[in-house]
Amino acid sequence: MTPARRQRPAGRTDPRLARAVFLLLLAVYVATFNGPPGGPDGEVAFQTTSALARRGSLAIGGTPEADALVAHARSSPPGGSSVREGRVAGEFYGWFGVGQALVALPLYGLGRGAAELAPGIEAAHGATRRYGVARSEYLAHLFVGLRNPLLAAWTAASIATMLGILGSSRRAALAAGLGYGLATFAWPQARGHASDVQAACCFTLGLECWIRARGRVSARLALGFGCAAALAFLTRVALAPAVLILDGAFALRLWAREPALEPARRRRLALLASGPQLLVLLAWLALNQLRFGDALDSGYGLAVAGGLFGGDPRDALAGLLVSPGRGLLWMAPGLCLLPLGVSRARRERWGALLRLGLLLALAVGLPAIFLRGWHGAWSYGPRYLLPALPVLWLLSALAFQRSDVDRRLRRAVPMLLAAGLLVQLPGVLVDQATHHDLAVRAAPVLLEVEGATSGPDREAELFEAMQFDWGFAAPWAHWRILRHRVSHERSGSGLEERFPVAEIFRGDSELVLEPTQERERGFRHLAWVDLEERLGGSAWLGWILAALLGLFGGIQAARALEL
C-alpha cells in the first residue's frame, strides 16, 4: 500500500527544494567551470577586482596581465579595446560594469588567503605564460571564477522557488530549476566570466521579490528588491530600461495592490525599494566623472561612437531566434513550451506576470537586435539574451505540471530537456575558444561573403555567416571536434589535436588545423584538468568538492520530495 503524502498548500514552497537545486547545479558547475579566464575580456574583469582589492582603485595595474592589457589599449584605435584611458593620464579602466568587481571581492579575498597555503602552486603558475605574458594570482583567479557558477545556481534555485509560490508541484519545480541550469545555454555561460550571468541573477531575484509581494509587501522584500535592481544596473548599464520596468511593476504592486497600507508605511517601503537604486545611481555618476570626466560615460562611449549599434535587426532577430549557431530554438529548446505556459498563466489569471515577462524580454532583446555584434562574439549561445532567459523559462516551466500538458504532449517535457542537455554538453566538453580558434581560420577558406574583401569588416561578416552555417555553427561543430579528439584516445594514442577542416566544418578543403593555445587543447579549459596537467597539482580536491555538493543536494531533494 502506498503511504499517503501530505499535500502542500498552494502558494507555498519548501526552502529545501531551492537548496537542492542550488547544490546539485553547483556540483555540476564546480566540476566543469573554467577557472582562470580564457580570453582578454574575462581578464579585464578580474584585473578590475584585483586592483580594487590591492590598490583601492578601479584603475587596473600592478600585475603582468594588467600591464599587458594597458599596453594593448595604448596601441589600439579608439573603441578597439575593452580597456581605455581615463580622465587622468596613465590611468586605465575596464569598460565593464562596476557591479562585477564588487561581487567578486569576497571570492578574491578567499583566493588570496588560499594562496598563502599553496605557495608552490602560485610559483608554478607564475612560471607559465599566456599570449606571451607572465601569469600571476592563480588561486585568486580560480576563486573569482566561481562567481558565475554560484550566481547561475542561485538563479535556477530562484526559478524553482517562484514556481512553488505559483502553485506548481515540487517535482515540476525541481525539474524546471535543474532544466534551466543544465538544459539551456545558462550552463556553458556559467562556466565563463561574462557579466550576463550576474545580470540574469539580479533580474531573477528582483522578479522573485515581486512575486512574493503579491500577498504582503514586507520591509525585507522591498529592500531585497531594491538591492537586486540596483546591482542589475551596476552590472550592465544597458539593462537600465528593463530595471525601470521592474521598478514600475513593484511600484504598481505597492500602490494598487496594497490599498489598506498606511501612507507612512507605504512611503517607508517605497524608500527601501528605491533607496539602494538612487544611491547606486549617484555612485555610478560620480565614478564615471572621476574616471572619464563625464558622468554619463561608463566606459562604452568610444565603442558606441565607433559603431557598436547599427546592425541589421532582421538578420539579428533571425540569428537570435533560429540560427543554428546562436538561436534560442536550439540553445534552450524547452522554450518551445512557452505557449502552453502562457495558456496556464491565463487560466490562473496571472496576467500581471505575463505582461511583466513580455516587457522584460522585449527590454532585454530589442537593444540586442540592433547591435552589430548581436551574437555576443566569443561565447556559447545568445548571451545578450541571457538576462531574459529566466523569466521566459519560468513562463515555459508553468507547463511542466502534468495536469497542464495534454497527454499527447507529456513526453515533450523530458524530450525537450534531454535535447537541451545534449546541446549544452559539447559547449562544456569543448571550449568555445577552441571552436572559434579553428573556425575563424577555416572560414576564409570555406565561406564566401559579400561586402568588404579584407580587414575587420570582412572578419565580422565571416563571423556572422558562421552562425548561420550548419558546418561551422555550435553545437554541431563542437560535437565533431569532440568526436575527432577522442577517437584516438580510444586507440591508446592520446587525444588528437590535428583537425581536418573537411571533417569538422563540412567543407571541401585539405587544410588541417591545430589549436593555437595550450589551453585550447584537450580538456585543459576545465579548471581541475588545468590544475593537474599544467601546474602539477591534484584535481581530486575539486572532484571531491563537487561530489559532496551533489550528495548534500540529493539529500535535500529527497527530503523536499518526501521520498
Structure description:
This protein is globular. Helix 1 (15-32) packs antiparallel against helix 7 (147-165) and helix 4 (98-117) crosses helix 6 (138-144). Strand 3 and strand 4 (133-134) form a beta hairpin. The protein has helices spanning 15-32, 40-55, 64-75, 98-117, 119-126, 138-144, 147-165, 170-182, 186-190, 196-212, 219-235, 240-256, 263-292, 301-305, 313-321, 328-331, 338-347, 351-369, 389-397, 412-429, 432-446, 455-468, 476-490, 501-504, 527-535, 540-560; strands at 83-85, 92-94, 129-130, 133-134, 499-500, 512-513. The chain is mainly α and 563 residues long. Residues 1-11 have low confidence and may be disordered. The protein has 26 helices and 6 strands. The protein has a two-stranded antiparallel ribbon. Strands 3-4 form a two-stranded antiparallel sheet.
Quick recap:
The chain has 563 residues and is mainly α.
Features of this protein?
mainly alpha; two-stranded antiparallel sheet; 563 residues; 6 strands; globular; disordered N terminus; two-stranded antiparallel ribbon
> How many β-strands, per DSSP?
6
| Total of DSSP H or I helical runs spanning 4+ residues | 26
Q: What does the overall shape look like?
A: globular
Query: Which parts are unreliable, with pLDDT below 50 for 5 consecutive residues or more?
Result: 1-11
What is the radius of gyration?
24 Å
Helix/strand/pairing category: mainly alpha
Which assembly state applies to the chains in this document? single chain
The percentage of residues in β strands lies in: under 5%
Q: Provide the residue-averaged pLDDT.
A: 87
Name the strands of the widest sheet in spatial order. Answer: 1-2
Compute the separation of the termini in Å: 15 Å
Q: Biggest β-sheet, characterized?
A: 2 strands, antiparallel
